[in-house]
Amino acid sequence: MPAVDQLVCFALYAANRTTTQAYRALLEPWNLTYPQYIALVTLWNDGDQTVGSLGEALQLDSGTLSPMLARMESAGYLTRSRRADDERVVSVTLTDRGTELRTELAHIPQCIAAGSGITDADSARELIDALHQLTEAMKGLRDHPDEVRDADAARHPA
């Protein structure tokens, strides 16, 4: 077994924690969390969403998403309303204040990029592509662990 600092999983964990801490420091003046920020980014870029589509986009379950949206609604950043045509569906819409935050928080991506040491768009794109590939591969392991384990055992018989 390699040392912990030689494990891909630990490198990802440490990078994730440190990045989240950087976002926490940058977002603190607005009393926003990183998940709240990415919800705002999604709403700014994609417009109104249902709670379901927002949860899917952010990869958050309703048990995490609903309380977060309630806090954002209390802060005046968005509204939630049941659709008239199907009351089971809840729509999420930015308020004027939520829309104004886009300008106030426009510096955040540049701060994160500068802090990460990524200096050009090509390097950023390469990292993003590699992370997307890793995410998809790990979904395969998550969804079919026995198949991956069996394939590995076939390649490395005891």
TrEMBL record:
Transmembrane segments: none annotated. GO terms for cellular component: cytoplasm. This is DNA-binding transcriptional regulator, MarR family. Residues 5-136 form the HTH marR-type domain. Pfam families: Staph_reg_Sar_Rot. GO terms for molecular function: DNA binding; DNA-binding transcription factor activity. Keywords: Cytoplasm, DNA-binding, Transcription, Transcription regulation. The lineage of its organism: Bacteria, Bacillati, Actinomycetota, Actinomycetes, Micrococcales. It comes from the Bacteria. The keyword Zinc does not apply. InterPro entries: HTH_MarR-typ, MarR/SlyA-like, Transc_reg_Sar_Rot_HTH, WH-like_DNA-bd_sf, WH_DNA-bd_sf. PANTHER family: ORGANIC HYDROPEROXIDE RESISTANCE TRANSCRIPTIONAL REGULATOR (PTHR33164:SF5), TRANSCRIPTIONAL REGULATOR, MARR FAMILY (PTHR33164). One of its GO terms (biological process) is response to stress. It is found in: Cytoplasm.
